[in-house]
Every structure is written in C-alpha cells, then in structure tokens.
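Structural prep section.
Before we set up the soaks we want a predicted structure of the protein with zinc ion in place, mainly to decide which crystallisation condition to try first. Input record follows.
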Amino acid sequence: MAFTVEHECPQCGAPVELEETNRLLRCPYCDVKNFLFTRDYFRFVLPHKEPGKDILYAPYMRFKGIVYLCGETSINHRVLDITRLGATFKKLPMSLGLKPQAIKMKFVTPDVAGSFLTCSMKVDDVLGQVGRHSSIYSPGNFFHRAYIGEALSLIYLPMFVRGSKVFDAVANQPVAELPEGESIFDPAIDDNPGWQITFIPTICPNCGWNLDGERDSVVLTCSNCDTVWEALEGRFVQVFFYTVPGRGENIAYLPFWKIVATVEGLEINSYADFIRVTNQPRVVQKRWEDRNMFFWIPAFKIRPRIFLHLSRQMTIAQEEFDVIEEGPQKGALPRYPASKRSHPESKDYSGQFCHKQKENLSSASSGQL
Ligand SMILES: [Zn+2]
Ligand SMILES: [Zn+2]
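Run finished without errors. Recording the tokens verbatim:
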C-alpha cells in the first residue's frame, strides 16, 4: 500500500507527486533533482477542508517494512504496513485505516496552521505489536527483533472539537466523545514544532556532475568521478567503498554494507572466534585468529529470505575475498537502491550463523552488540 505525497518543486514551484518512500524528487517540469533529507523521519499532514476551525493534529506513527524476529532455531520475518495512534488520548481511532490511500498527504511545513499533539509513541512500540500479533512467537519467545524500514514517518490527522465531540476534519465525522469539563489535549499540545524537510540539490560535491540513484536510494553515485555519497546533517558526505574484483567479463557489482560490531557477552574478537562461537563446519585456520570480524549485509533491496541468505553466505565466506581500495572500472558503479535506515543489528546474524545449538543463541540474546 503506497501513500502519495504532493509537494512543490523547490526550484520552479510546479506541483510534484511522489511516493512516501521516495528520497529523490525529480521535477517533470524543470528536470531538477533534489534529495529529500531529514534527521529522523518525514512528517506529513492529511489535508482538511475545514478552514477557519481550530485544527488539532493527532500524530500517527507509520511503519512500512520488514521486521525480523530471531527465535530459538531460526529467524523469521514479517512484512508490516501499519499506522498507529501516537497520542496519549486513546479514544481517537487507533489507526488511520485507508485514509492516506484515498487522499494525498503533504509535508508538514512551518506555515501549517493548527496545534500538534505530542507523539508519545516510539518506533519500538509500534514494532512491539508485531511480536504480539505473530503466530510464530508468543511475547518473550524470541530473542531479538530488528527491522528494515522502507517508510518510517509521522502522519498527522487533522481534527477539531465541536461541543463534546472530537471530529475528524478530513471526513467531517465525529470520532470521539470528550469527557465532560476536561481538557484532555492541553498538556499534550505543541504548537507547530517548525519541522521542515530539507532539499539537497543532487550535485556531486567533488566534480559538480549530477548524482544518480533510484527514487528510494539513500546513497547516490557520481558516474563522472566514480564517487559515492550519502546525506548527513543536510549535506552530501562521501562514502568510501572497496571492491572485490571479479573475474571474467560483463560483471555486475552489487553493494554490501560491511559492518564492524563490538560484541559483549560473546567472545567474538576475530573471524576465528566467529567460526568457533557459531560452530561453523570449518577447521579454524591460524591466520584467522588475527583477522578482523565483519558482518556483511546487502545494501540493495532484496526479498527477506534472500537478504538473510546472502548476509549469512557473505559473512561466512569473507576470508575468501580480496578487497581492494579501488572502485570497479570507470562508469561501472552500480546504483544503490537500498535503505540503510535501521538495518538489522548484527545480533540477528549471530542467530543465523549458529548451527544447531540453542545455548549459543541464548547467550547471544544476553549479549550486546
Ligand atoms: Zn521544477
Ligand atoms: Zn563527481
């Protein structure tokens, strides 16, 4: 279920539509590309048709993505696509239902008139509901939960109060009764918090060329100077990359994140430790004792099962790779479509790599990565 967002091109002001997961905004009129940046998550409002009323905006946490649950013997996943009320006043509708599908959302801007109820919910609270609703694991019956979010945002539903009732200002329908003589909202109201999306023109900071990427890429590439960039603190910062040289011709290069994890509670300080702790069917070589341990995960969008499989295979096989500091041959850099946001913590992989023994997983669950 994809939600649509309506916005104006920051360059020419023309109306542009995009999907909620898009990071690249390309204007069909002036052809200028901008990268959408925020420090945490996007904030949207659903537009209303009640001008002149005192509008109260109720926050809903929105999550669309994959949640991985690490159980005793396996890792399972759930595809999640939900909105959940984040306000403390629980009489409001718990979910936005199909509303955001029916109308186009807009980014919150400082000039949106109205009061914003504080969002008391955190991402983990939303994801906590997965465990509860899962048919595989009862609460507490899994060791760890991690997620890859395609969309994580806050959507505000406009409301107004008339008499003793709270009305949804999109549908103009009563949604809740206010307890008499009480002002429930007062302690939880922010004025418009002044949040604003940042647009970064997609120009290579190194050579001035146009950066490339898919619409939902979080990392962009420059095909002119073969550099890679990600947005941090409102500007592009270079991402250093290495290559595993391929043999043969017509090679496609796929991006992986190579992650260093500090492990407490499990003695994994080298690749040799990792092979021992996770009981891989391999004879530990002496040279592995000095080899640093990395976790490798795909940096491109791929189905959850293949994601786990590739992570496992690449991490176990890492000692077979020669990694060099040069990029692939000129112009062969792949585009980077994947979301880096909230990639699963490595603990998942400790789970995945373990062969058979439950004890290891139990200790993995008490460890901190
Ligand atoms: Zn434009
Ligand atoms: Zn460049």
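Observations: The radius of gyration is 24 Å.
Flagged for discussion at group meeting.
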